[in-house]
Amino acid sequence: MNSPSDNKPRSSRMTGAVTLVQGIVGLVAVLVVWLAWDFLREDGNARDEAARRQVAVTADLAVTEIRTALTGAADALQLLSRLPELRGMHRFGPAAELAERANSALLTTISDLAYTSTAARVTPAEPDGLREFVAAWKSAAPVFEYHLAALRRRFYDAGLLALLELLPIPETLEPPALPPGRSDSGLPTWVDVAAFFTSCLEPSLITTGRFLDLAFGWGGIILPDPQESGRLLAATLNDRDLIRSVSIRSLDGKELTGVSEIGGVAAFGGGWWRRGLRGNRPFYAGPALFDESIGRPLWMAGVPLRDATREPAGLLTARVDLGFLCDLAGTARLTPGSMLIVTDEEGVVIGHHRPSVVVSQVNMRHTNPLVAAALEGEDGEREIRLTGTSYVAAWRSLRGSERHRLPGWAVVCLAPVSELAPGGFRTVLLTVLLASLALGALFYLSGLIETAFEEDAEA
Fold it and tell me: Sign of the CA dihedral 223, 226, 232, 235?
């Protein structure tokens, strides 16, 4: 038999072993709880990051689609403005009118003279003086063209070529082609000489008249061919394009010609395009104005029409239909409670999945801080609480690097946190359940070990 003195050390060793097991079980239990909490925390961060990324991608796709649509309309306007039929705008005043009348009178006189000589079957005399004049004319033509080319080159190097082109200087002195039946000697007649100088004088007269009208501000801006210009404008309107009306205006905003699919008078405020003209920009992004007749906002845009001197002579303006913004906002919704908001530069909503918000022209600049941030040119994503609901939000500025071709609109995408991550509660419940089972199994195993130690101590 074991003596009481032998049982005391054994009992103390059993107690120490039980305490060690209990300590190990406690540490393992703490580790299980910490792992469960860390898993929930990491899972929550991953869900938040995925939600922000999803909302950010939706906002980026919406911005890309809007930029593509507006850039396409801007490209169409700029291509149209480069057509020669639209670049011949000029000022027509008393000087130009007088020059056209004088030229018409000269052409009539020469025509009458040629008709008289032909009807009388008279071959005008060709004295030696005429022969000498034609020979000198032919020899002087290449010399004149050579010196004119050198002069044009010097003006071009000095940046004054446009000024030289305004002067009434003929480009060539080549003799005219001999009309059939006019002369048998192969030499032009005095009538041909007069006709040639009249044809050389025509552009000089007209250019001088236009220059005087432009210098003194006489008359108004006119189109070279209003009928052809109207036909070209009408050809630009089609069902696949967002442009609903196109017009040509003078520099004071007066409409010279235009075509429209929606009718009505375009509200043409002067501030935006006048600032663009002063800045000499190739494209003017105007405001978005709500049109009561069609119930949708329209974007105003303009392109300068330049004359031969590359100076703005008029403005090609268009109204772009923004009805696609509401359709885009409806298709870009991630959840039933999410929304895509597009506002103009003043903060007025021009794109929303509920058309009533657009029709009411709600201004969100001062009620939504994300709209205000996007209007300032900022981009970002974060969680925000609005009207008692937590949202994952992403905001973008539409303009980006296209400073002069695109307007500074705001694009904001909002998605409720509760709808964007619906599996969060299930993950928490499953994690707690697994941790509870692990702790239960751990404590059950600890109890078995302690019971074995106690039985061994009693034996």
Answer: positive
